[in-house]
Design brief:
The complex is a heterodimer of chains A (256) and B (65). Chain A has 256 residues and is an alpha/beta fold. Chain A is built from nine helices and ten strands. Chain B has one domain: Beta-grasp domain (Ubiquitin-like (UB roll), Roll). Chain B has one helix and five strands; from the N terminus they run E-E-H-E-E-E. Strand 4 of chain A pairs antiparallel with strand 5 of chain B, so a sheet runs across the interface.
Amino acid sequence: MLEFYGQKLSSRLLLGTALYPSPAVMAEAVKASGTEIVTVSLRRETSGGKAGGQFWSLVQSLGVRVLPNTAGCHSVSEAVTTARMAREVFGTDWIKLEVIGNHDTLQPDVFGLVEAARMLASEGFEVFPYTTDDLIVAERLLDAGCRLLMPWCAPIGSARGPQNLDALRSLRGHFPGIPLIVDAGIGRPSHAAAVMELGYDAVLLNTAVAKAGDPVVMAAAFGRAVEAGREAYRAGLLEPRDMAVPSTPVIGMAAF
Amino acid sequence: MKLIINGQSHEVTAETLAALLTELDFQGNWLATALNGEVVPARERDRCRLTDGDRIEILSPMKGG
């Protein structure tokens, strides 16, 4: 059974809570997807504001676990402080650790990421590191105390889908016992199925659902694609062949 | 005294972080606070004294990906 830091899960889809047309649509999409984990963030509250409280009440009513993120943090100290504040507010040791290295690509600063992961793991955090598909960085993150990895498959919000299946396959091969979650870059259910077919444990996405024509229907579609990809992996996939191979028996053909 | 609260300058009379939240009408048990980059847990806000020029962050839950 799927486990993240000892927490047993049946859904292999993690869903973000941003960019939906309305909070109500977000809530419906979460239900339709079957997810058990949603990502949330922390932002500055305005004086007298109730926005944060209303959002938090809605998320709590969904009956799912929350995975707070450090989205938008560009330095180790920003990310670590945000993580500590998130633990205080959300009451969880889980943290989706993002240390962004570039404004345009939103790719992780993997050096800062490893440093921040080490600090947070030593404080008892259970770190979900948003990383690249680099094998050596993955090893460093595990050394730093991470017990799962979240490589991107394409830039955040790009909807391009897996850009380097070989790198993802390599990570899967090197870390057979480590939960691997593809985070970022998924655009379509077929992208999600493709990485699940590689043996990935789960998929985290947001924009592809939130910005779909009908986010609720798309959430359900992603939920099924993730399951289909997982089942296909477990069933054992037929590898591509160079030549055509007839599927209908040739023995017993009539001769005219 | 003058404080930088969520990036903006404010003139306030509160002397503790707890009093500051009340003075500025920040409510709710879902708020997270930091003073000069260090997290201040809710239970310590009463004892957290402020001095002129302090930087304070007041955060709350928000949607995220």
